[in-house]
């Protein structure tokens, strides 16, 4: 998914050198914006660590709410500006410029899809006439200009870093953006609120040209962009099976089937032809956002599909020789013990090949965030001390459910999985870290919107 950028700009200064930074991983959005600037003739460097040439204009692409609370990022911004440089901050966090300004203090934030805005700000600096930016005025007020129009889906080739071969995001060197938008309305997800629910698809020739360039630069495996891959060329309420199949077939011809993945897909966006194509032209895995085994929780999450549809989707994948992974979210404010046990039952019955568990994080300006703001902490599983089986571990209820579900899932994977002391401790440290991060995100939410 394309990242947004918040930019720290100095006006009335000719800016020719840019450093685009995407902390920890090279996101597709960071590479895309770097490519746009390079195409405009600027001197551009892309990095996945917090460093920049002195006095460069830094474009800092932030894709996680956790980045807004990072002392390392705050220190980098402060130090770079103090030394005469400029910093733009963006990525998905630009959807809430109030928090960006308050926590990171950039000169400006690019809000929404930044491909059209970046060249304007690079050339003219901060101006009320440029849509889609936010900045703090001299009087201390946060000024937000009128929204930018959706960016064109056609654009220059991303700037691919020389060390892309070393990157692995769930096994892929990069996720290729094939389309924008999502027809879903999951209450915990930012995507449809960021890109909209209308699907905008790229031309196949442009995508395959980009795939060739990624391979040339050393990418080992490429994945269709996160979200629902089979929505590529979706129009008038219908999935275009043939276009999606041609996409996978074209990518496989360039990369080889074992170096292509199209894992993320909705349970209600599959067909026999689509599943056969995933089997024939990719690594053969499907990743469903199953989230819960309770229909009540799925309704609260706005999934648009219930447990029956999820169960049927898993079985259909098996019939086509595919491996199935599922992600689950625990600790939703409305989740009861009975709801959680239904999720455990779903896992017991379906023998998923892999399972990923996370604690519900209230991303600002999503319906889940609104619900969390209305939920007293003494009723929020993310804060309630766990009094059950894992009481001695001093976990919250959300952490205990995440820990329990991960160990439970290991018992029902097709291959033998033994929970050793090392695995036990890995799960335990993981859920504690997850719980701390969700509480920090919740505290941040209350600080600005509570």
Overall pLDDT confidence: 92
Which shape, going by the Cα principal axes?
globular
CATH superfamily of the largest domain: tm_1862 like domain
Overall number of structural domains:
2
What's the tally of helices? 14
- Report low-confidence residues grouped into runs of 5 or more: 1-13
CATH class of the largest domain: Alpha Beta
Largest sheet: 5 strands, mixed
- Rg, Å, rounded: 22 Å
Q: Between the first and last Cα atoms, what is the distance in angstroms?
A: 29 Å
Helix content: 25-40%
Structural class: alpha/beta
CATH architecture of the largest domain: Alpha-Beta Horseshoe
- Residues in β-strands, percent: 5-15%
Overall number of strands? 17
**CATH topology term of the largest domain:** pyruvate-formate lyase- activating enzyme
Topology:
Elements: E1 5-7, E2 17-21, H1 28-39, E3 43-47, E4 57-61, H2 71-82, E5 86-90, H3 97-104, E6 109-110, H4 117-124, E7 133-136, E8 142-144, E9 174-176, E10 179-180, H5 191-195, E11 200-201, H6 204-216, E12 222-224, H7 241-255, E13 260-261, E14 264-265, H8 272-281, E15 285-291, H9 295-300, H10 307-319, E16 323-330, H11 337-350, E17 354-359, H12 367-374, H13 397-411, H14 421-449
Parallel strand pairs: 2-3, 2-4, 4-5, 9-12, 12-13, 14-15, 15-16, 16-17
Antiparallel strand pairs: 1-4, 1-5, 6-7, 7-8, 10-11
Helix pairs in contact: 6-7, 7-8, 11-13, 13-14
């Amino acid at each position: 998914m394309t990242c947004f950028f918040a930019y720290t700009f100095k006006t009335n200064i000719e800016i020719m050198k840019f450093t685009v930074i995407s902390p920890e991983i090279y996101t597709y959005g960071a590479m895309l914006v770097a490519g746009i600037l390079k195409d405009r003739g600027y001197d551009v460097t892309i990095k996945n660590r917090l460093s920049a040439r002195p006095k460069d204009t830094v474009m800092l692409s932030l894709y996680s709410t956790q980045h807004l609370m990072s002392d390392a990022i705050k220190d980098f911004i402060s130090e770079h500006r103090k030394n005469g440089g400029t910093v733009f901050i963006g990525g998905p966090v630009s959807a809430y410029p109030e928090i960006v300004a308050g926590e990171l203090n950039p000169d400006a934030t690019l809000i929404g899809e930044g491909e059209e805005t970046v060249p304007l700000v690079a050339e003219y600096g901060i101006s009320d006439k440029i849509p889609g930016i936010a900045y703090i005025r001299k009087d201390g007020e946060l000024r937000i200009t009128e929204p930018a129009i959706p960016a064109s889906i056609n654009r220059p080739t991303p700037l691919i870093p020389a060390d892309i071969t070393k990157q692995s995001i769930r096994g892929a060197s990069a996720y290729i953006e094939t389309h924008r938008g999502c027809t879903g309305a999951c209450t915990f997800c930012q995507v449809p609120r960021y890109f909209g629910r209308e699907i905008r698809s790229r031309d196949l020739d442009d995508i395959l040209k980009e795939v060739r360039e990624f391979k040339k630069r050393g990418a080992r495996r490429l994945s269709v962009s996160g979200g629902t891959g089979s929505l590529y060329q979706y129009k008038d309420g219908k999935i275009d099976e043939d276009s999606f199949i041609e996409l996978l077939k074209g990518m496989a011809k360039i990369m080889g089937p074992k170096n292509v993945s199209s894992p993320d897909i909705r349970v209600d966006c599959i067909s026999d032809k689509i599943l056969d194509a995933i089997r024939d032209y990719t690594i053969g895995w499907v990743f469903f956002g199953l989230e819960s085994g309770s229909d009540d929780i799925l309704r609260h999450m706005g999934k648009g599909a219930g447990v029956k549809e999820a169960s049927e989707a898993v079985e259909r994948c098996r019939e086509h020789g595919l491996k199935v992974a599922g992600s689950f979210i625990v600790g939703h404010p409305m989740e009861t013990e009975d709801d959680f046990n239904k999720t455990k039952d779903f896992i017991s019955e379906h023998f998923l090949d892999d399972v990923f568990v996370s604690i519900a994080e209230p991303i600002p300006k999503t319906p889940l965030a609104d619900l969390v703001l209305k939920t007293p902490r003494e009723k929020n599983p993310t804060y309630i001390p766990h009094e059950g089986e894992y009481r001695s571990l001093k976990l919250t209820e959300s952490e205990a459910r995440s820990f329990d579900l991960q160990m439970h899932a290991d018992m029902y994977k097709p291959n033998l999985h033994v929970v050793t002391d090392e695995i036990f401790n890995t799960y335990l440290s993981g859920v504690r870290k997850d719980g701390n991060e969700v509480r920090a995100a919740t505290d941040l939410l209350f600080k600005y919107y509570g």
